[in-house]
Amino acid sequence: MLQHLPREQWERAILGMLLSTLAILVGVLTVLNPLGEEREAFYPYIGTVFLVLSLIETIVTFHVFRRRFTFGSKVLFQILLGVIFIFGGKYLDIPTAILFFVLYLSFFIFSHIILGIDLYPNKGWGMAILIGIIGGGLVGFVVLLALRWEIAEVLSLALGLSAILEGLILGYLSLGVNRTPAYLR
Q1: Closest C-alpha to 159, from 103, 118, 119, 83
Q2: Are 15 and 165 in contact (CB under 8 A)?
């Protein structure tokens, strides 16, 4: 699938696949939530996941996609959330933590809609609609489950699933399915 690409583009595609796989693994680990309910350990863990995802998306944006601001606002917001959860997690109440996650998932939806349209101008609306539906479902999922489950279970599940989805999207776009993506030409 990649053999017809020039070497430099091939290397970028492979890097994108490796980083997307890392994002999926981070997502799976986050869903499993190895730290349980303890806020002093759990919130810094969530903050670290935000920072790791920010690093992955920054490398993919600048080196693989060769775009400057594809994930700009989302990455900056993730970094802010990472710092808040790491250094101020013990001061967060549950409604504020949920609000931060709803805002994060809103950024997730918006940035991927823009990404789809940016990379595939003629066909990006299908991806945009799909991401909107999935992302909107995640937002509703967080709000509904937060009313019934422990906060750590809800936040780890929501962040983990969004990281897995992020990895799948980045992997699909990095490799290109049955064709060369526009940004690799």
Answers
A1: 103
A2: no
